[in-house]
Amino acid sequence: MKRLLVDRIAFYCEDSEAKQLLSNLKTKLVNHYPKHLKVHALAHGNDSGNPQHKNNNKYLKQLCEQFVAVTKHHVLENLPYQRQISKEPGQLLQELGHHAALCLKNCRFFCGRQNLLDNIFHHIRQNNDKTHTALILYGPPGCGKTALMCKLSKHMQAILGQETVIVTRLLGTSQSSSAIQSLLRDICLQVCFAFDLPPPPTQTKQACSDLVLFLSNLLLTISRCGTHTLVLFLDSVERLLPCDGAHRFHWLPTGCPPKVHIIISISTSEPGILKALQHAVPEAEAHFEVGPLSSEEGEEMLEMLLASDKRRLSPAQWAYIWQSLPGGGQPLLFKLAFCEARNWASYTSSSELAIASTAQEAMHRLCDRLEKSHGTVLVAHVLGYIASSRNGLSDMELKDVLSLDDEVLAEIHHFHLPSSKAILRFPPLHWARLRRDMGECVAERKADGFTLLGFAHRQFVEMVQNRYLSKQDQIKRHFLLADFFRGTWSWGMKKPLTLPHLSRTLNADRKVAPQPLWFSDTVPNLRKLSELPFHLLNAGRIEELKQDVLGNMNWISCKAITSGIQSVVDDFAMCTERINCPELRLVRDTLLLVKPAVGLSIIYTEVLARLLFFVPSYPEVIGKLCQQCLSWFSARPHPVLIPLCGFLQPPGGPLHTTLTGFLKGVTVMALSSDYRLLVAGSQDGSMLVWNMEVIEMLHALPGHSAEVRCVKVFGKGTCAVSAAMDHSLRIWNLISGRVKFVIQDTLIEEQPSHHLHVDERHMIVYASSDTKVNAWHLETAELIFQISAEVSGAWICSAVHSPRLVIMTVSEGGVLSLWNSNTGELRSKRQLLGLQEETPTSSVLLQKQGKMIVGFSRGSLSMISSDGNSLLEKLPGRVCFVVASEDESILAAGFEEYVRVYLADAKGFHRFLAADLEHEGAVHTAAISAGNSIIVTGSQAACIQVWSLSEQGLLTDTLDGMGAPVTHLALYDCTLVSASHGATYLRVWNLVCKQQQKTLARVTDTGCTALSHGGDYVYLTQPEDRQKVIIWDATEGAVCDTLDTSAQVRCLEIAEQTQLLFTGLVSGTVLVFPLNSRQDVACIPPPESQKPVNHMAINKHEKQLAIAYNDLVLVLDITPADPCPVIHRPTYTFYTQIPGALVSRVAVLADYRVLYGMTSGDLFLYDCPQSRVFPLEGHRSQISCLESSHGEHWALSGAEDSLRCLWDLESCQQEHEMCYYKPLYDSIMAGLDDLGDLFQL
Question: pTM to 2 decimals?
Fold first, then answer.
């Protein structure tokens, strides 16, 4: 034994030189790392190899303890340093290192393809100094596209210069390169760092559309600098996840500016994605096919692979290979052939040689060989686990999972028991051998901060799924993976294992890694966050999924903080596709409304404030989430604001989505004629195009360098024209997203164009400014004519009436000029009557009538016909806008805080609505629906109001949430788009959402309140204990007493003069507490039905009390007495007799008349002595407040539709109508001024 441990030379002599070198190395290591190394001395003897030896056990125990202690020390020592390092650059450097290492690996065995390389290099050099398209490499799977991309990136600096910046991403090989949002974020960061440019703002990095526009502008900036060339390599774009429209390539710049190149590779195995890319880049000269290797190139590749493995083949074996692959083939096929050939011995007979002729056959042969060496069960399960994982599995995870796999362990211990009965693990040597033999079929990828194993090619995944993963096997693999990531068998939990061949059952600890949600206060378990929901879903463990993941606020907040809100939304979207659960959809929609970059307390606040309304209806998931939020708030050591009602926009409301992408405010917005496309421009010159059918960004239109002033869409949504403050006019192809023509105005001292008109019939675009009108040909961009104005008569408004070939311009002072729209010749010029002192402010063209409506600075509104005639209307203030309906039958003019609506009558201005539409702030814009049923207005008050034109201007809805003054509106069908000069986003609203889903989320009942002694005492109940009435001394600021009731309190009422407190209970009983002697409690028993008290009211003289139940009202007399008033039996009793409606509010008058409102919105006045009922015009929703005046001549009713009505009780007629613009005030109660009949709300 001793001889085996000593180096010897010839004749078994001890090698003294080797002995001395080893001794010197040991001494050097100990001296160099004194803190890290500890010398263990172990006596050598005949039983040194015996692991049961006492000294050996002691040594091994000390060694393991030392290793664990040193490892913990290093981890804890480096944690503070890791916190100091900026997280973002560190992650980016790791990403760059990962792709750089893969590039070097893929270049190792590249050979041939010289002609293809030369053609690509020539194409790049030829387009380096001009605008061009992206370059596309395509071919079938396994053709070597990745290796070719890596080879190109390696030699690109030799072609374009050493200063060239190379950005390479092998898509799908890491988590950041698999999703388009994280891919664009990392590319933007890398390019900004490389060119010393400001990185994208935090808000931009949160949204894909923002990053698309940022990248487009970034490439333009780099091109304009012109100092260095940038080349982007994006390999295997088909491996991008389909989220955010990645496979529709809206993110791909439509044109590469000079000195910027984008090179993309794609597999032909995904025809749909390939077709979309060909649509985005239609130029045939930009597409290069990657074909198979010739037999010579294949031979060269095989020789390189064999040499790297230090193997050689005999002539007979080479002959067999070329017999099997006579015409060459794909590089993947040669690599798989190498995997077979490396196992041949020199003496392997020809009959035993086998080479697959296809990739699928080669992969099946590889599996056959693995099964022969390692057993079918182990191979099937290992490959099945890798294929079933979401992002791959690490080496340690696979060993832990295999240690939990009873079938694998039973196969290993088929003939013998494990060495330990207490601990049972999968033998690591088995995994090491299998991992080595799997070779190139698995590849490493970065995800969740770990290096994970996945399949190198998609063909391997398909083969494993077909061969090893039946439906039942898939469920089993996901079930065990869910157990592992859930931590079911960690922390010493013993899992039984039955060994049927040995008739034994072992209950052993599998020693798998624990899976907490947080490893520490700052280190989350990213692997659990990523994998667990995926496996619970696919294992069919839905209840556990709801409990541990989707209905767990700890999980939601942890993943939102570490991976972003969008990752949580993606998990919910994945689950809701398979689970029909309205609760999960509501939570998902709630998370969509949460801001992208938020803190922990904001997440809990938003979730609670948006979901509280749904708790009674959905207690299983939403109810538990809200309870968890409340528990989290109660445990906070610092003061926090806790939502007590649903005051934020709930899911399913009118706000459909938010469109982002701009860095500055939106200045223009236009819809195509078929309403499919929306084009918008901003203050920084950026333009974006959205597909409104799927609410997805189609193109970023870069080019303008200053504010976009106007935009028009024409050609049935295929083209657009825009004008900007940079004095340029651009005509766009909206199908490709590219600019067709750029028309630059050289007279930059003049005002740029601010009006556009497109005459598609004559193919002319007219662009007008204050001083001129230019006419350009749409197909050639040639100037047809130019009309120049006198300096003293600058034009403010202009319009082109195509059928009559007239251009109409109106200048300051009301001077009208008519021009020929084909030649630009002046036809006539005249002064409009009554407008000499006014300046035009806005205009709209009525094309069908041949008229232009112009608004002026002093409130004039003029209707000007194409023959020069005009009609005049006067408004009270400056006209800020004029809009017309689609059929040109209705006009709306905005002035100050009002909008006035007219019939578009050729004979004059006729009011369509009797009253103007009033707003809280200055009105900026309006839009009329296609059927003229509604008009939508936007104002300085940052809210949008919807008015019914068919109901005489009734306000039907108020949309809050724009967050800035509303300056632009676009309306089509039931969808509204709003924008603002002061906001970088656009809101998309659904105008037909159900009333109960709107922003006016019902305020939860937080308790009852009442006041006495002039407001010195407050009586209230609390939601957590409704059986107690708390008396709060407002002057002292403290609780002075508590009244116990027999049941939950539903309502409170105070008789101030007689000093009585009435408490209506859920049992139907009314308790009466004298305020001066609260212990003397009186009781008004409930009716026989014993239904809960819905509301109570005392008349102004405090002589009558009305108690309302569901469909019953009692009227009782209050008689003065000593020491306290007496309440007799009910004087009158009556039933409401309205099916399906309950009494919600009641008010009683001195002459025994009773007002009562219903949940249906109906309102009645009941005369008890006469037994007569007088219906009042009802509201459209539940009555929420009802009060009478001091003299009982007036009454005020209010409902949840924000409408308040003032009634004359003598005539039972409505006198006034008031509407709150803010739905927040739906439940505000009405009160009275002590001095008279003045209502206070």
Answer: 0.67
H or E element that contains 1232: strand 1231-1232
Query: Alpha-carbon torsion 203, 205, 207, 212, what sign?
Result: positive
Q: What is the mean pLDDT of residues 481-508?
A: 88
> Which pLDDT score, from 0 to 100, does residue 802 have?
63
φ and ψ at residue 1237, rounded to 5 degrees = -85, 60
pLDDT (tens digit per residue) in 1166-1189: 999 999 999 887 676 788 889 888
Are the CB atoms for 327 and 349 separated by under 8 Å? no
1209's CB contacts (< 8 A; 6+ apart) are: 1149, 1153, 1155, 1165, 1188, 1192, 1193, 1194, 1195
Question: Coil, helix or strand for 694?
Answer: coil
591 within 8 A of 572, measured Cβ to Cβ: yes
Does the pLDDT of residue 653 top 70, yes or no?
yes
Question: CA torsion angle for 84, 87, 92, 97 (degrees, to 10)?
Answer: 50
Which residues of 832-889 form beta strands (DSSP E)? 840-846, 851-856, 860-865, 870-874, 879-884
Give the C-alpha separation, 1158 to 1178, whole Å. 9
Answer positive or negative: Cα dihedral of 8, 9, 14, 19.
negative
DSSP 1133-1179: EEE---TT--EEEEEE-TTSEEEEEETTS-EEEEETTTTEEEEEPP-
* pLDDT tens string 542-574: 999 999 999 999 999 999 988 888 889 989 999
Phi/psi at 415 (nearest 5 deg)?
-115, -5
The CA distances from residue 1021 to 302, 613, 1061, in Å, are 84, 20, 13
- Band of the pLDDT at 1231, cuts 50, 70, 90? very low
* Residue 747 burial (C-beta neighbours within 10 Å; 0-12, 13-18, 19+): exposed
The CB density around residue 503, as the number of other CB atoms within 10 Å, is 7
Residues 732-736: what's their mean pLDDT?
A: 89
What's the residue count for the chain?
1241
- The letter for the amino acid at 423 is I
Task: Return d(Cα 1089, Cα 1114) in angstroms, integer.
Answer: 13
Residues 6+ apart with CB under 8 A from 533: 545, 549, 550, 571, 574, 575
Percent of the chain residues topping a pLDDT of 70 = 91
What Rg do the C-alpha atoms of the chain give, in angstroms?
40
The structure tokens listed for 983 are 């906001």
- Give the position of tokens 């994605």: 273
Alpha helices in 564-660 (DSSP H): 565-576, 582-593, 600-611, 624-634
Which one, of 219, 222, 276, 282, lies nearest residue 249 by Cα? Answer: 276
187 phi and psi, to 5 degrees?
-65, -45
Tell me the two tokens of residue 432. 């090491």
pLDDT digits (tens, 9 = 90+) for 902-940: 998 877 888 999 899 988 889 999 999 988 999 999 998
**With 0-12 CB in 10 A as exposed, 13-18 as middle and 19+ as buried, what is 322?**
middle
Give the Cα-Cα-Cα angle 635, 549, 452 (nearest 5 degrees): 115
When pLDDT is averaged across residues 57-66 and rounded to a whole number, the result is 80
Helix residue ranges, H only, 913-987: none
Cβ–Cβ < 8 Å for 654, 646: no
Reading the block at residue 1090, the tokens are 């014993």
1037 class by beta-carbon count within 10 Å (0-12 exposed, 13-18 middle, 19+ buried): exposed
Average pLDDT, the chain: 85
For CA atoms 351, 357, 361, 365, give the dihedral sign.
positive
- Of the listed ranges 113-122, 481-490, 822-831, 1018-1027, the least confidently predicted one is 1018-1027
Q: Which helix (H) or strand (E) holds 396?
A: helix 395-404
Enter the DSSP assignment of 546: I
- Segment 330-339 shows an average pLDDT of 84
